[in-house]
Amino acid sequence: MPQLSKQTQTSLSEINMIPFIDVVLVLLIIFMITAPILQSGIEVDVPKTKTVHEITEQRLVITVDKAQRVYLGNDAINIHELGSKVQSQLKKPQDAVYLRCDETVPFGIFASVIDTLRQAGINNISIVTQPLTERSRAQ
User: Fold this and answer.
1) For position 49, what pLDDT does the model report?
2) CATH number of the structural domain spanning residue 85
3) What is the mean pLDDT of residues 45-59?
4) Domain total for the chain?
5) Do 9 and 27 fall into the same domain?
6) How far, in Å, CA of 16 to CA of 105, rounded?
7) Coil, strand or helix at 125
8) What is the pLDDT of residues 89-137, one digit of tens each?
């Protein structure tokens, strides 16, 4: 009888790693699936300028990507509906709207987005740029 109790004590003192590994692998799979969902921004290379004004408050953002698609926030929108949608989402008519436009987009598309906003009565339009760094100046 004493021999049986010694075997039980030795088997209880060992740590079983298999459940721990299972949990870690499940968490890894969950993070791999949810990581792309968390990055729900629109990829845009905005032009670089020397004068950049840092703004921290939340505003309405209109984006034109490389494929010349127009987005209001993160949602794609038809340019003909842009003015009415922006007006309905603005709290005050004098609030500013941010316009992010990829640097490879033709000026005609950029001008038509601004014209659409102006026809809707939105005159406070801020253009989003990136600061010009020393590395980009040398190029």
Assistant:
1) 72
2) 3.30.420.270
3) 67
4) 2
5) yes
6) 58
7) strand
8) 887 767 788 888 888 889 898 899 999 999 988 888 888 877 776 554 4
Residues 69 and 29 in one domain: no
Question: Which residues, 6+ apart, have CB-to-CB distance to 95 below 8 Å?
Answer: 59, 60, 124
Query: Quick check: is 43 in a domain?
Result: no
Q: Do the bridges between strand 97-101 and strand 125-127 make them parallel or antiparallel, or are there none, so unpaired?
A: parallel
> Any residues with CB less than 8 A from the CB of 99 and at least 6 apart, and which?
61, 62, 63, 64, 113, 114, 117, 125, 126, 127, 128
Which of 11-20, 28-37, 39-48, 88-97 comes out lowest in average pLDDT?
39-48
User: Could you tell me the residue range of the domain that residue 78 belongs to?
Assistant: 48-138
Q: Are 84 and 27 in contact (CB under 8 A)?
A: no
Q: Quote the tokens at residue 5.
A: 């109790």
**Structural domain contains residue 82:** yes
